[in-house]
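During the first year of the project, the team set up a workflow for recording each protein of interest as an amino acid sequence followed immediately by a discrete structure-token representation. This format lets reviewers and collaborators read both layers of information side by side without switching files. As required by the reporting guidelines, we include two representative entries from the current panel. The first entry is reproduced here exactly as it appears in our internal archive.
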Amino acid sequence: MNLRNVTLRPLNELFQKLLDMDARYVDTYMPVKNVRAVLIPDETVDGAGRALPIASLGITTGHGVAELSPNALDGLVQRTGADGPEVRADYLRKLNALREPASVKLAEDNINFWLKRRGEETHKNGQLKSFLLRLAATEPIKDENGKIDPAKLKTAVLRARAVLSDRFLPIDNLSLITTLWQVMQDKFNFDGSVRDACTSAVNHAKGAISFSHQLSETSMNVCLMNPCMLYDTGHPENGVMSVTYNGPDGNGGHSWTRPDGGIIRLGDRPEGGGHYMFPVARVTNSETGGGSAEVTFGLFQVACANGMIIGQASRRAHIGALMQQDEGESKMVRDQRLKLIHAKIADAVRGVFDPDVFEKSCREWLKLFDEPVENVAQAFESICRLPGLTVDMAKMMLEAYHPNVTGKHTLGDVQCAVTNVAHSFDDPDKVRALQDAGGAIVVQGRKVLQLA
């Protein structure tokens, strides 16, 4: 891996991506009785240059018809009862994927049959049930202040990125990253306001930087590193050291200054063996219903710029229940609920860089290099049975594998190859799965290789 591709930086780049995406986003609530699946006709050209009719599924939104993304189609069929013994969701997905007008029409009729049956359903308070439709336009539809421009919305070509329950309270990626920035700048107040400086508990997240982020329509994965807390596994007697991050050197490299004045560069290892490690906080989120926001603890290895997530050592922001609104909940209560969610996330990020947890995790990771592995290829095949990993990743792990300087094959070397493969992907879910696998090896050791 080329370490010059590793980016240690503030969240500016991710901020801009999210701002660009947000400029195209709009939410709307539609009563279930007013929602209908719609066939959207189109055409393509075959190899002989002849026009062929094709089609895709759309949904009525109150702002015209929006094409259904795969995620939105899944949400629609799940919330209409179409995903049942009579009609399976994967069958409807296949019909839509065929793009043949007759197949798409069949899917349209099935979904509308179930929508009609659910149209008069109400909540316990008697209010008709609605869907929260999260839509994306092909072009920006907001002004410079982030307000929807009605004229642009009226003519926009829309795509539904999610169909959710009207009780679901999404945590937008942009607002979540704003909270992370405030914590990293030591300017987050737990009443939801921004302060000038920290005046309460120690904030070990102050000055944190991002070393990895992946973003898709359905999920976000951000890894933050505290660049001032270093652990040298070759000299554990030094404990957690305070170092100075010197930033990028202009040539794509990064460096740190040790307490004794020595310089550490990205890709370095301590003299005499060992590894330089930094603590990591990983923040994951799905604003389209794929899961609640979560904060977990991990490690960053300087030699390979690998990240691993050690779930058992983490402080998690348990906010899943908070993301379900009560029936008839007022806007004031909803806003307070959002403030609480962001406060819990901020608290988790601040606490996840605990020096004691960091040192203990480094010592546990170091033990992996005392665990011999007889068959490296077989080890990777076993690891790829973990959730989110695929068989083809085993080959990539084998290509990334390098035994330590002694020439012995150890579980530590296997673990390094697993987390190294995460650099090959931009998909947040795949990166997250590989980071989790790296952490699982630290926590479970050889048990991971004995998966059925």
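The second entry, processed by the same pipeline in the following quarter, appears below.
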Amino acid sequence: MTTGIVDLDPQIVTGLSELKTACEACITADDNDAKDYLNSKKSVWEKMTCQMSAEVAKFRDDHIDPLKQNLRDTYGLLTSLYLQVYQPHHTVAQKLHAVYTEVWAPAVAAITPIQEDLTTRAQQTHWKGPGADEYMKQLPLQQAAVSEFSELLKAGGQGVEQPALLQAAVFVALKNEVDGLVSAVKGYQNLPKRTDDVVYERTSRAYGAVKNAQLWLSRELYRGEHSWKRVLDVHIDHMTDKKITDLAVIKGDRWPRATKDTDVSKLPKPRGPLYTSTSPAVVNAPVIDSGSNTGLHTDSSGGGGGGW
């Protein structure tokens, strides 16, 4: 039993807002550095006439403006993905956990003293006579039924608690990813000014990191193939196992009863725990990585664009 599940949606939304600010700060810092770099490359005539060479204009149109737009668009995709796919479910974990703690766990706790009482009664020796014989013959079946019912309640509780924990794990991973992105992009924002032919390194790195995160949210986290899906599949197998769907003692909707003619030696036996605990879901956010996005080369020999 977990002690509580926190709604992480407000923190994730705040993080996404901070990420946007950090991305725009990268663009602004790169714009300022690019102006300085451009001025250092201008001829005296260009400085006097405030003209921009055709090569510089083409480099801006072909590489700089698309890079800045790509970062903004990818951030938009990332945010929309969270708001449309994940955020609508941000209270599911808490609601399921509440059902577990308020309904199923108390039911299990309530039946425990009944089991203990039946165990004590089965050991009594002071009551004698036909009534006692009839009662003691009935008792083993009642013990078996109550024991199985207790296990059924525990399984029912896990039926809601395990999905709650899975959902919570997904949102923990989302928060960790957003927090990591914010930290990384703020780090890119503070990169020193380049002294070579590379411009827009901050924007380029931010774009790479946000793009990788957006792909992770839309593919791996969404499908859960390497994280939560395996745990969910095992959980479903447990909940649909014959031990639960076809109980050994309790049959149909009637409580089992024994009579004086019941063969005690042939009483059905509980099958033990009906639900085997699964390993907790661990959904790890990937390491923030900008990939090969390290800036634009203004020198055509640098491989980052057409040069100017």
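For the second entry, the following points were noted during internal review. The longest strand covers residues 198-199. The chain is about 65% helix and 0% strand. Both points are flagged for discussion at the upcoming steering committee meeting.
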